[in-house]
């Protein structure tokens, strides 16, 4: 699916359905319960030929003075349309809608190919069950109103398909908000103040957890140390993640409980920072964090559920109707519980750990119906490297601001290729976190080997088709040759545009101008015909997709003062497509959601402004008025 071609008026990919919505004719669908299958269009209801048209024609023919051009126009106006040639069906035979949303400015997501609009617009949506029954003019759709139909007037507001966040960490986001939330702290002193406040309410011996700090935003851009935390931690073990999750700081008590000492060695894919005396400073990079994570007591069921409920509420408030989530298996079980209670407010595709055995993975995959469009397991998530912010993304050339550092690669390539092939042959979709060009190449090589083996063995993809839809998450620092390889292998670039708002402060210093010019290269991917799927990486970035839209179309800082390689900007239509149809394609669900057309799931969001017409600097202030999932309003602004 080429989103660039799609948004520039080219033909849609064959896997998509094109609907003509220009006229006021209604489209109806068979609304029987279906299992992840394509809805078939029902034929539009015919209209009867107008007798008055024939009267006009007779009068026209009798007027000898009528010019030929006028006569022809009259004839054409009088001829019946194709939809008028058969007898009408009884009005009462049409199924009535459960809900009609009317008087709206609806961005359908379907290319218009007209001089007036790049995307077709409509003004009303009829919903029956959890799917869209019809779209069209308010007057026409009101014919679907029955005695029990609810009618909701949207007051002319902008409506678009619900956002499908292709990459986030729901449970971590909720847990951060319930712990020491360090998002936005401006200094080490402020970080210590928030930690000290949490200590005051903690029970003796409790672990104090939190995250979201970013030393690059501080006036003094130095990493915190265990000794900085010891002074205010009151004897509690403390572990605080950096904003990217690939670096953390632990206090002395936490290091002791994790068994990290002067004699500890760096694990594969990780690094323990040390001072000149060889003592651990408390900074743990990537897999070096694992020892502390194992020492932290597991959350209780109620703690997990509360954290997830907090995060789900944020999704709803921001118009996110689907989430491709990287959380723990215990969190998936909370989602199952919420679904049974009718309280799951976003569609969840839960990723599974790439490193688990095929037997373990298959057991989890088959534990919940894959046909459940509200909740199911999705791709396998693996990590090739770390992050640019933590200097752990794997690069083929050293960091420009750290000439001896090439980052951290997490796998031996031979082992990685074998594991990837084994899992693709078992029918799993795979997505690899890869940020540096070395990490990206590791992922591409593993995908090439796995796809070759799968095709030779005639193994089908995760959805039973021939398109494996392998993904690279982040893909921040590719080379030109690697982008071409994405296209060749049909690898999806799953990217998070709001990262550039945070990273532009230091990205060029990390990479140098040549590498930085192609970093976060959304336009480069689209121009090559690579499918983009957008997300936020929440809780690394805020969950607001409007920050992502702003970043994608401007590549400017939030205050508008800094611009980062503007050649990689994309259009608003392209950005919306990446957040909707692109994300749906990335999880094999492009026939179920991503557009406002008959037969698709009734997932959409009502906004206080038309984001396609709003000034770029106004996008960050976008407010959600209503979020609808499966026809049900799950959030409404007060």
Automatic annotation (TrEMBL):
Q: Cite the GO molecular-function annotations of the record.
A: hydrolase activity, acting on carbon-nitrogen (but not peptide) bonds
What's the superkingdom here?
Bacteria
Q: What's the short name of a Pfam family annotated to this entry? A: Amidohydro_3
| The protein, known as | Amidohydrolase 3
Keyword Aminoacyl-tRNA synthetase assigned: no
Which keywords are on file for this protein? Hydrolase
Q: Which residues form the Amidohydrolase domain?
A: 150-635
Report whether Disulfide bond shows up as a keyword of the record: no
């Amino acid at each position: 699916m080429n989103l660039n071609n799609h948004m520039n008026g080219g033909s849609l990919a064959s896997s998509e359905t094109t609907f003509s919505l220009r006229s006021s004719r209604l489209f109806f669908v068979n609304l029987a319960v279906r299992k992840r299958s394509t809805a078939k269009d029902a034929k539009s209801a015919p209209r009867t030929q107008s007798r008055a048209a024939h009267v006009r024609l007779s009068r026209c023919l009798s007027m000898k003075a009528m010019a030929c051009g006028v006569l022809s126009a009259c004839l054409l106006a009088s001829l019946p349309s194709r939809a008028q040639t058969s007898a009408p069906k009884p009005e009462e035979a049409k199924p009535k809608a459960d809900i009609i949303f009317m008087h709206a400015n609806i961005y359908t997501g379907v290319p218009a190919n007209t001089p007036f609009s790049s995307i077709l617009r409509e003004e009303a949506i009829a919903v029956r069950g959890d799917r869209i029954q019809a779209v069209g003019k308010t007057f026409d759709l009101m014919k679907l109103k029955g005695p029990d139909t609810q009618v909701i007037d949207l007051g002319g507001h902008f409506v678009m398909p619900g956002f499908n966040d292709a990459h986030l960490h729901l449970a971590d986001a909720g847990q951060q908000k319930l712990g020491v939330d360090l998002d936005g702290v401006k200094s080490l002193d402020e970080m210590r103040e928030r930690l000290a406040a949490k200590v005051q309410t903690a029970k003796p011996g409790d672990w104090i957890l939190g995250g979201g700090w970013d030393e690059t935003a501080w006036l003094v851009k130095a990493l915190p140390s265990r000794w900085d935390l010891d002074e205010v931690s009151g004897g509690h073990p403390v572990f605080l993640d950096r904003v990217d999750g690939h670096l953390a700081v632990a206090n002395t008590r936490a290091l002791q409980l994790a068994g990290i000492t002067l004699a500890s060695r760096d694990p594969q894919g990780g690094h323990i920072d040390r001072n000149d005396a060889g003592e651990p400073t408390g900074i743990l990079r990537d897999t070096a964090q694992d020892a502390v994570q194992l020492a932290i007591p597991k959350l209780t069921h109620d703690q997990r559920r509360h954290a997830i409920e907090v995060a789900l509420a944020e999704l709803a408030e921001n118009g996110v109707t689907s989430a491709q989530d990287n959380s723990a298996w215990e969190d998936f079980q909370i989602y199952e519980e919420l679904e049974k209670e009718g309280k799951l407010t976003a569609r969840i595709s839960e990723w599974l750990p790439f490193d688990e055995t095929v037997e373990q993975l298959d057991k989890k995959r088959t534990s919940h119906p894959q046909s459940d469009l509200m909740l199911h397991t999705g791709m396998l998530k693996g990590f090739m490297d770390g992050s640019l912010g933590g200097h752990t993304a794997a690069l083929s050339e050293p960091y420009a601001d750290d000439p001896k550092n090439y980052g951290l690669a997490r796998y031996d390539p031979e082992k990685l290729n074998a594991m990837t092939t084994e899992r693709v042959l078992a029918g799993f979709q795979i997505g690899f976190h890869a940020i540096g060009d070395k990490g990206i190449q590791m992922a591409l090589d593993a995908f090439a080997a796995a796809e070759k083996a799968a095709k030779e063995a005639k193994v089908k993809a995760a959805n039973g088709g021939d398109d494996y839809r392998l993904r690279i998450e982040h893909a921040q620092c590719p080379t030109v040759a690697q982008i071409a390889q994405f296209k060749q292998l049909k690898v999806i670039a799953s990217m998070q545009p709001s990262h550039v708002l945070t990273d532009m402060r230091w990205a060029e210093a990390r990479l140098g101008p040549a590498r930085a010019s192609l970093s976060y290269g959304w336009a480069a991917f689209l121009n090559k015909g690579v499918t983009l799927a957008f997300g936020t990486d929440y809780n690394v970035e805020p969950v607001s997709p409007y920050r992502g839209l702003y970043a994608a179309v401007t590549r400017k800082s939030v205050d508008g003062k800094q611009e980062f390689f503007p050649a990689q900007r994309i259009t608003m239509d392209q950005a919306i497509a990446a957040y909707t149809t692109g994300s749906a394609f990335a999880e094999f669900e492009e026939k179920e959601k991503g557009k406002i057309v008959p037969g698709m799931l009734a997932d959409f969001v009502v906004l206080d402004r038309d984001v396609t017409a709003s000034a770029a600097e106004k996008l960050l202030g976008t407010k959600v008025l209503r979020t609808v999932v499966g026809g049900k309003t799950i959030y409404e602004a007060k």
